[in-house]
Amino acid sequence: MKPLNLLALLLFLAGATWALTRSERFVRDIQVAYFKIINPTLTAGSAMETKARKFLDETENSKSLETKLNAINGEIGRLRIIESQFAALKRENKELRHALDFKKATNFDVVAAQIIRRHPTTWWQTMDIDAGEDRKIGIQLSVLSNEGLVGIIDRPFAHRSSVLLITDEKCQVSVRVEGTPEVGILSGQRGKFDNNPTLRLRFLSKEASLKAGQRVFTTGRGGIFQPNILVGTILSVEKGPIDSEALVAPAVNFSDLGTVFVVLSETP
Amino acid sequence: MLRYNLSTVVLLLIAFLVQQFVPAFTGLSHARILVVQLVFLCCAVTVTTPTMLLLAFLGGILWDAHCYLSPIIADPEVYAQPVESLRFGYSILLFGVAGFLMQGLNPIFRQGKWHFSAILSGIAVFLYLAAEFILISFIRGEFTISRSILRLIFYTSVLTMCVSPVIFWILYQIANLFDYPLHPEARNSKRR
After folding, report:
1. Which of residues 67-86 of B touch A (CB under 8 A)?
2. Regarding the domain delimited by A109-268, which CATH topology (the fold level of the hierarchy) does it fall under?
């Protein structure tokens, strides 16, 4: 090996060691600086992704409309086209009404946010939302939807935040099963990239008597999630020699998630 | 040479900006085109080892800044088994290894046969993702590999490889602009 290459390799290894031994605070500072620089393209990229998603949705709608048009006469077809134009508005209206109801019903002080980017990384189950430190969002705050628990804030930035979803293996939630004394730790499963991933509920008692369809709620223990938030429903239970495990279907439909709520505090 | 090397650094930084516009293909197991890794791999075969290592360091640290998840601080009495994550900076080493792999084909590339490097870029992305997944499994324990993971790795590698001719074309344009010989051996054999 040439001396210059050897020197470069040693410097490279020293640099890698330096990076691997940085503190969390330092890493966070690097991330803040990085996202500050790329923020304009990140915003433009998110906007493009949102537009592309809307376009695909519209294409899907028009395809189904075309099938219907072939089956019915021209007059009904014409009316259905007009109806379809209102479908988007109706859906939006319904979603906003849901959101409003949720905000009224909850005892939490929440901030509403829109999802602007899905799956920004290869392996981690995360989403980006359009609310950040400018709206008092901090690290490790719970994120909910009107259906149930979504995840926690992983990285808040000035005008956006990254949410770690409960479908990621790293996001652990202390939960209880409705109508039973059973408590356990719920987490996502590695490499489950389906639209409706299942969650894994571990550390249940050996004699856990659970049935499919029972609901799972947060316990409020552990200092992250508020109690009594719906997380999902039991799909199946597997008994082991020491403890039992259950598969849980999340309450939230992650593929059709538009508005989420970040819990700032437990009191309104 | 210096101008060409500097331009590869700039190209890598631009790749980070372009990556923000590349969404995941939900229909293909959430696969995506890894523009950053591709630009790095294509540049790696055209530059010297010290420049490749500089690109690997820069690419790795910025990629980790983009993807790194913060540790979750919770009550250890409740969350007795916290899920470990890869440390910030691991991508630097992965970029370095992938760069050395690409440099292995440097003699063929210098003869003007860039097609082999284009194919190798796909293989390198496949190995990069596989190594990343193995590292995650090693750190978190319990090695599980499913079809969806294999599909994700495969589709990502193929999609990324398909874009590699574009990156090589850009590199050729830059090399022409700065009069940097990408294929010195091919040029010499023509002269003979």
Report:
1. 67-75, 78-79, 81-83, 85
2. Thrombin, subunit H (2.40.10)
CA A233 to CA A250: how far, in whole Å?
Answer: 7
Q: How far apart are the first and last CA of chain B?
A: 24
Q: Convert the pLDDT of each residue in B134-164 to its tens digit.
A: 998 888 877 878 888 899 999 999 999 999 9
Q: Which residues of A touch B136 (CB under 8 A)?
A: 123, 190
Nearest to B95 by CA among B69, B70, B58, B145: B58
Domains of chain B: 2-67+86-191 (1.10.1760)
Cα–Cα distance measured from residue B18 to residue B35, given in angstroms and rounded to the nearest whole number: 7
Assign B182 a pLDDT band (cuts: 50, 70, 90).
confident
pLDDT at residue B63 in the model: 94
- B27 CB neighbours in chain A (<8 A) are none
Alpha helical stretches, state H, B68-113: 90-103, 106-110
Q: What is the ipTM of this complex?
A: 0.85
B57 to A15: CB separation less than 8 angstroms, yes or no: yes
What was the pLDDT predicted at B106? 81
Q: What is the pLDDT of residue A201?
A: 92
**CB atoms B67 and A121 under 8 Å:** yes
Residue A1: helix, strand or coil by DSSP? coil
Nearest to A154 among B54, B70, B146 (CB): B70
Helices (DSSP H) in chain A: which residue ranges?
3-20, 24-71, 74-105
More confident site: B36 or A111: B36
**CA–CA separation, A26 and B65 (whole Å):** 11
Does residue B13 belong to the interface with chain A, where contact is any CB pair within 8 Å? no
Task: Please determine, for residue A235, whether its predicted confidence score (pLDDT) is greater than 90.
Answer: yes
Instruction: Yes or no: say if A42 and A130 are a contact pair by the CB < 8 Å rule.
Output: no
Please spell the DSSP secondary structure of A78-112, one letter per residue: HHHHHHHHHHHHHHHHHHHHHHHHHHHH--SEEEE
Q: Do B70 and A24 touch (CB under 8 A)?
A: yes
Half-sphere exposure of B29 (CA within 13 A, CB side): 17
pLDDT of residue A8: 92
State yes or no: pLDDT of A181 exceeds 70: yes
